[in-house]
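Run: sequence + zinc ion -> complex structure.
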Amino acid sequence: MLQLAPSILSADFSRLAESVKEIEAGGAHLIHVDVMDGHFVPNISFGAPVMKSLCGKTEMPFDVHLMIEEPDRYLADFATEQTEYITVHQEACVHLNRTISHIKSLGIKAGVAVNPATPLTTLDCILADVDMVLLMSVNPGFGGQKLIPSVLAKAKELRRIKQENTMDFKIEIDGGITLGNVEEAVDSGVEIIVAGSSVFGAERPEQRTREFLDILKGGL
Ligand code: DX5
Ligand code: ZN
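>> structure
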C-alpha cells in the first residue's frame, strides 16, 4: 500500500494540532516529524516535546526523521506509543547496526536515511535489518526545495535490490514532492511519500491531501 506522510515542518506551529487534524481528515497515513539539530543540518526545527504534544490529538502514527548527530542519545525520547518509525541518517551513525538495534529494542520500526550524494552501497550491510530506507531527494535542512532528479534512478535501483533479495523494507522519498512529480516517484518504486510545503503550503491542506491520495490510488 502506498502511504502519504505530510511533514509538519511546513505546518503552522501556532496551530499544530488543528493542522494535523486537517490532513488526517484528508486521509493522510502518517505524520512525518522532521527533527533538526543545527549540526547535522544547517537548521533547527523542534524536539520530542513538540511531537509528544500531538500524542492523542490524532490517530496517525509518527514517522520520525532524525536529522541529528549522535541520535542514540535521543531515541528513547521519540519512542512513544504512537511512534511507528524512527529513521536515522547513515551519515550520522558511526555504529549503524548498533543504532538500528537500539531503535528496535524500543519496540519501534527502524529506518535508515541517505542524503542525495550518499551511494546505496553504503547500506549493503544494513538492508536486511531495516524496516525502511528513506531516500532524501533534497539536501536535508529545509522544506520547499526542488527534487533532485537523480534520486529517482536511485529509487529504481533500490527497488531492484529489494526484489532480487526478497527484502521487505519500505522505500520512502523525502523532499521536493509535488502533485506534478509524485506519480513519477511512485513509478520509480517509492512506497511512502513525504510532502511538506506542497501539503501545508496549500490554501486547504485537507483538500491537497485528497489530491495527493487520488494520484496515489492509481498506484495502490
Ligand atoms: C528536508 C526534510 C523534509 C522536508 C520536506 O530537510 O527532511 O521532510 O521538510 O519538505 P518539502 O516537501 O517541502 O520538500
Ligand atoms: Zn524528513
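>> summary
Residues 150-164 form the longest helix (15 residues). The beta strands are 3-6, 31-36, 62-67, 83-89, 109-114, 132-136, 170-174, 192-195.
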